[in-house]
Amino acid sequence: MRHHVVILGGSYGGIAAMRHLGKYPELKITLIDQHPYHFLQTEGYELISSNTSFDETIVSLPALCANYGNVTFKHRTVKSINPQKKVILLPDGICTYDTLIIALGSVTKRFDCDTTVYHYSSGAKSLRGALRLNQFFQDELYKRLESAKQAKENFNIIIGGAGLSGVEIAAGMQYFFNRYYKSNTLSCAALHIHLIASRETILNGMHPHIIKIASNRLEKLRVKVHTQSRIASIDNHEVILTDGSTIPFDFMIFAGGTMTAPCLETFNAEKNEKGQIIVDDFLKSNTYADIYVIGDAAALSSKKGKALPPTAQTAIQSGEIAAKNIIRSLHDKTLKKANIRMKGIAIALGGKYAAIDLGFIHFHGYSAYLVKKVTERLYKWPLWWLASKGYTKINSCEI
Length: 399
Fold this sequence. Notes:
alpha/beta, FAD/NAD(P)-binding domain, five-stranded parallel beta sheet, 23 strands, 34% helix, 24% strand, globular
């Protein structure tokens, strides 16, 4: 009987693990995700600001999995995990496993506030959230185009969180609005994007040179940055900051952090203060030897013990390492310790402008934008090619 590996989550880490394990026909692999697509979050912010199209940000998971004769895709939401019985509870039944890979990623962390705020707010980590934001801004522009009165009214957008996501959204949206208003001879002075940074600078923890580049770019675009401020409370359409100041707003974007997937809240395993599952040197759960945890769901650290940020590249590396260790384990070989490294960070800063930190070198502008786009395409084009082959296989089976 084939060893059954179940992968929970079809994002960067889950796909990396599936592609490696799919090479071994002696395995039976099941990939489970609540969505039938892989959302390219690194390009999601461009979708929000209408700088890319919907179809440019997704990869079909059924078509991708169809390329591998030993991989089955299940479009299901994971309800809970029972590690003692090695069972995954799904809405329509259960799924058993021999080895489990948890790659469920993370979801947007919301502020503690009145539930009514959810009617005029959104996170940006999901495709649904990105599309909702894009539609909202398109509708707002349409109303201002049709009505001279509305075009002159102030419109405030609050972005809570000035990390990588918040900065990219703020720069992308402000650039989009500036370009739109200029091309339509409208005044962009009425539109204000407020970026709330809890620390003394945006992009806290990044290289000072990158922080300076991003800060200068936001200032040039006219994004209003509020440093050393937190959102203390939200009263209807008004944000109250910790310094006592208030900002009326029409829409809010949550970019102030992430939390683990809901089904992991009741998962009884050793976790850190963020709810991420603690893993050993081989990416196994400290609590269960037959469960690997990768990507945002895991408390990943570098070889020197430094906590790693939840990025696509750390997720991909952890997925590949977990898959290789599963194969080594089945072949009675010594497991290899994880050595996950940040190879660089690329930040989109509106239009054809970006900043790149490679550790030993930093650069920005159009050249950085080109490097970022090439990197994104080198990742998604092979997946699109595999998905197109898988789609052909699915159609040929249906005939």
